[in-house]
Amino acid sequence: MTAWAQSLIRISNYEVETLQKRLAEITERRANAEIRIAVLDAEAQGERDRARMDAEAGMMLGAYLNGWKSRKAKAEGDLTVLDAEEAGARDALTGAFEELKKFEHVAETTRLTQLVAIAKRETAAFDELGLRRRAV
Fold this sequence. Notes:
Structural class: mainly alpha
Number of helices: 2
Strand content: under 5%
Order of helices and strands: HH
Number of domains: 1
Number of strands: 0
Shape: rod-shaped
Radius of gyration: 32 Å
Distance between the termini: 41 Å
């Protein structure tokens, strides 16, 4: 394999690894956002249960739920942004893999072409040696 092909493959591998790390980080942030939404839902259910048992808490439930709705809307908005970011990262990773495979294919084709050329020269040398022996 030629030096230029090795360099291109090494650079492409680095890009793929970088994009994989980015995708993992986005996936982790997405999981945290989903957990945050689940926690908000659990807290709201807890407040509803408490409001059923305590009249004073029941009077404040409406104000709590208004704040809860805005916090949940923000968390869901963050999740939507993360979904779009994850889709973009996956597309970039797919493109990087395609580029890596192209470079690997070109490198392999170049290597095989070189092997064929070497085999042809070797065959020509043996043919010439055979012709010389026949002539003598």
